[in-house]
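In this section we walk through a basic example: taking a raw amino acid sequence and producing a predicted 3D structure, encoded as discrete structure tokens. The instruction is simple. Fold the sequence below.
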Amino acid sequence: MTEVHRGGCLCGDVRYLVRGLPLPRDALVCHCKSCQRRTGSAFAIEVFFSSENVEFTGAQPRVFEQRSDESGRWLRQQFCSRCGTSVGMTAERRPGQQAISGGTFDDPDWFVIDRHIWTKSKVHWVEIPAGAEHT
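The resulting token sequence is shown next.
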């Protein structure tokens, strides 16, 4: 039987379910400046799935598209129009994939972080765990 995990935004309007496990090496912490700004935190926790394994079951999230200053590729951030919670994203560089914001799972302890990316932008007081893969 396929694993199913559920989650949603702070107010409960946007809900989702995911089937199966994250894509290999794709439960990650991103330390880029864009993720810091869009989450209002030091980093973002993104868990990537094949798009076909993600279903939004409540209100559909709103979408804001931005283009990377470095690559010029688009990133579509998905958030609740009522409470503003960032619930996920899609990226031009990852066709057919859907990221879910790790902290929005009803049980955020079920997945394991595989790696840390954009660590050159991390804030000085964040420590990367010893032995963690990072770029």
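Looking at the output, two observations stand out. The CA atoms of residues 25 and 114 lie 5 Å apart. The mean pLDDT is 92. In the next section we compare this with other chains.
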